[in-house]
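Why does residue order matter? Because the sequence determines the fold. Keep that principle in mind as you read this record.
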Amino acid sequence: MPLFGGDAYLELKGLHVYGHDLHQKISMSLVLMANDSNGLIFYNGQKTDGKGDFISLSLSDGYLEFRYDLGKGPAVIRSKDRLTLNVWNNVSLERSNRKGEIMVNGRDPVLGESPNQHTALNLKESLFVGGAPDYSRLARAAALKEGFKGTIQKITLMGMSILRPEYAQNSRDVGMFQHHPCSQNPCTHGGRCTPERDTYACVCLSGFSGPNCQHTIFEKSAGEAEAVAFDGRTFIEYHNAVTRSEKALLVNKFELSIRTEATQGLILWSGKGLERSDYIALAIVDGRVQMTYDLGSKPVVLRSSVRVDSNRWIHIKASRALRDGSLQVGNEAPVTGASPLAATQLDTDGALWLGGLEQLAVARRLPKAYSTGFVGCMKDVLVDGVELHLVEDALNSPQILHCSAAAAK
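Structure:
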């Protein structure tokens, strides 16, 4: 967790190299603690002499300023309120063509727009975090003159963490923040501690589970995967972050394998229940997988073209980063979509359901396939990259049925 003192900087690979086409759209989120009211948080430019396009985030007199230039002058989007110092803050940024927004701690976003008709953002240089080696080589319109003082816990680009050692190219005077539980690594048995503002989550090695990876999972016999059978009435509840509950989510990532002959049925659900319309769901609709998410304005529906009612195992990858969603079934190319310009976080009750919903009142408000329980087998479930143990991690106690070892292969 890098700590910056004003003269420090971290040089990472530029935003353009992380496998996304960011010319038209970019979504980022950060978790940071500022100790001073001014300073560069990140900057990425097109040229080393400060000319051309750029994107930046900085603190100016306590206000966050999100700036970008598409070639004909900068957009300057400033937070409504000063950032609270010496506490963790969540910051979300989005730029789509000329339009952009900044949102702090889930409050109402501030919108802005760049001038002229240019819509593409061209970046070719490194991403500088916390400072820069030479401010005279940064774009003048970015108005950056000094480094950030504080700690940056997390930076994600399109839902992918980029504040990682393997992406670092250079650094100067970067310290490590020591006043966080992860600095003492409370995760046992080789587990990896991932900070979550003031608290943490452990990513456990295979064979271990629990909040601190303290539980040993007894190995299954050779060839026997943990595959659970669902009979249409098996609804299993979990924490929506595996080891804990999260009430507001900017990113969702799910991976799982299913085997079924059913043409309808709810595979997965997480949402707000009856209080609001927010939810994310995977279901089989007419023999194909469908992903739907609603952040409070309008549902986004992504449909796969691959039939899954073949009684063969098939792998599903589904993700949402802010408004952008992606669904990949088997070897097909990902199907993508985006929700309207409005909310970026998914408000939930903290639960994740597999196989169907016990809350029938919620299910009745949804399409028929979503009110039908899943019939088939499920295994290899990952939630945000963390393995979900289908039996050990269950919060409720339905009669859990196991697929046979032979069928689970």
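The two ends are 40 Å apart (CA to CA).
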